[in-house]
């Protein structure tokens, strides 16, 4: 039986389409009121998992419980969930008010109550006064808010969101990310969100489940996923990262000594658990963790990399430098732009030194 504080429980969930395994043994719990994001590339199984929670697909095996109650083969309309799709799925011939009220009408809610709740839902998504318009008279962002209002007006226990911001421009998407997180807090509903956008996941989520090939590779808070990726796939998929191959020679106090050919010994953090043993390993360090230093003047105990700048790209808030190491590997450095011009030292062809603390790098477990 699911714990009372658990909203959704997935146990050994499999989904096969013929010979293709779309979801491969997913098990996870989602707490009441949590904002959980399923993140991964196209074809990783995230949307299929969401559709199984909503009842649009039935699992080949495994169980789904919502609020402690197993869903079995229940259709979507008999589950305590509502879904918001990327294409909004609004009825073009109905007014905004009738679109939002549709679920209430199906539930035979009295007219006065419907009118009141439609008004409340539109206020909640900050879109009052548009009840009489048709969807075609609204912008894309407004249509998305109407779709959210329609989903929230039924006061669902769980709200499923399948890449709902994918059709919006960047600035509007960022605004809606903030709005979705606000709605999650204000309604107390459990949000399960599907996206392939790492920034979106990091911005909104309480926890992120990184998926690939139908499996959850890592589940944790955004900072944990970003700062302590367990595998190379997670490290590569969440933000930019530098990876170097080497050999783990020794470990002490959670820090391992890794020999990187042509670079030297580097001291980096080991992952929790038993995922790393002596031998060939891959270490990762984020570009913003690298700090420019003067030769032989790095902070005590830090790792130092020497190389030659091969490229510099201005990106507004920071400049992206590519550095060629003696062993032929390339690493990137993100340097925050400031009022002080220091780019001369990092011009293409310059010999430079960068350093990072042992705790800023991590050894990745085998896939």
Summarize the structure.
This protein is an alpha+beta fold and 367 residues long.
Note the run of SSEs as H and E.
Answer: EEEHEEEHHHEHEHEEHHEEEEEEEEEE
The residue-averaged pLDDT reads: 89
Across the major sheet, the strand order is 6-7-8-3-9-10
Oligomeric nature of the chains: single chain
**DSSP summary: helix tally:** 8
The CATH superfamily of the largest domain is P-loop containing nucleotide triphosphate hydrolases
Beginning-to-end CA distance, first to last residue? 32 Å
**Count the strands?**
20
Overall radius of gyration: 25 Å
- Taking pLDDT < 50 over at least 5 consecutive residues as the criterion, the unreliable ranges are none
Considering DSSP H and I runs of 4 or more, what fraction of the residues is helical?
A: 10-25%
Q: Name the CATH class of the largest domain.
A: Alpha Beta
Question: Strand-residue fraction?
Answer: 35-45%
Total of domains: 2
CATH topology of the largest domain: Rossmann fold
Structural class: alpha+beta
Give the overall shape: elongated
Largest sheet composition: 6 strands, mixed
**CATH architecture classification name of the largest domain:** 3-Layer(aba) Sandwich
Q: What does this entry look like structurally?
A:
This protein has about 375 residues and is α+β, with helices and mostly antiparallel strands. It has two domains: about 220 residues, 3-Layer(aba) Sandwich (Rossmann fold); about 120 residues, RNA polymerase II/Efflux pump adaptor protein, barrel-sandwich hybrid domain (OB fold (Dihydrolipoamide Acetyltransferase, E2P)), CATH 2.40.50. It is built from eight helices and 20 strands. Helix 2 packs across helix 3 and helix 2 packs parallel to helix 4. The radius of gyration is 25 Å and the shape is elongated. The mean pLDDT is about 90.
């Amino acid at each position: 039986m699911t714990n009372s504080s658990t909203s959704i429980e997935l146990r050994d969930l499999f989904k096969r389409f013929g010979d293709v395994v779309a979801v491969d043994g997913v098990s996870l719990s989602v707490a009441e009121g949590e904002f959980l994001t399923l993140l991964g590339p196209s074809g990783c199984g995230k949307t299929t998992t969401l559709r199984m929670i909503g009842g649009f697909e039935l699992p080949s095996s495994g169980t789904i419980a919502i609020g402690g109650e197993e869903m079995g083969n229940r259709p979507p309309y008999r589950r305590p969930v509502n879904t918001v799709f990327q294409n909004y799925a609004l009825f073009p011939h109905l007014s905004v008010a009738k679109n939002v009220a549709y679920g209430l009408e199906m539930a035979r809610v009295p007219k006065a109550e419907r009118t009141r709740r439609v008004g409340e839902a539109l206020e909640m998504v900050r879109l009052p006064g548009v009840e009489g318009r048709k969807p075609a008279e609204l912008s894309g962002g407004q249509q998305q808010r109407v779709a959210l209002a329609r989903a929230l007006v039924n006061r669902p226990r769980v709200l499923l969101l399948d890449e709902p911001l994918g059709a919006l421009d960047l600035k509007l998407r960022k605004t809606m990310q903030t709005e979705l997180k606000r709605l999650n807090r204000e309604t107390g509903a459990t949000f399960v969100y599907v996206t392939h956008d790492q920034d979106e996941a990091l911005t909104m989520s309480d926890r992120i489940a990184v998926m690939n090939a139908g499996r959850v590779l890592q589940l944790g808070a955004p900072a944990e996923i970003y700062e302590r990726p367990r595998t190379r796939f997670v490290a590569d998929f969440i933000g930019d990262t530098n990876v170097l191959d080497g050999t783990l020679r020794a470990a002490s106090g959670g820090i391992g000594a890794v020999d990187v050919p042509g670079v030297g010994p580097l001291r980096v953090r080991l992952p929790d658990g038993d995922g790393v043993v002596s031998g060939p390993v891959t270490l990762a360090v984020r570009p913003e963790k690298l700090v420019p230093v003067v030769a032989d003047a790095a902070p005590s105990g830090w790792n130092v990399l020497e190389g030659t700048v091969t490229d510099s790209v201005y990106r507004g808030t920071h400049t992206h430098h590519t550095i060629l190491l003696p062993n032929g590997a390339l690493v990137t450095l993100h340097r925050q732009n400031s009022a002080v011009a220091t780019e001369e030292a990092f011009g293409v062809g310059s010999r430079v030194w960068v350093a990072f603390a042992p705790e800023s790098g991590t050894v990745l477990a085998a896939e």
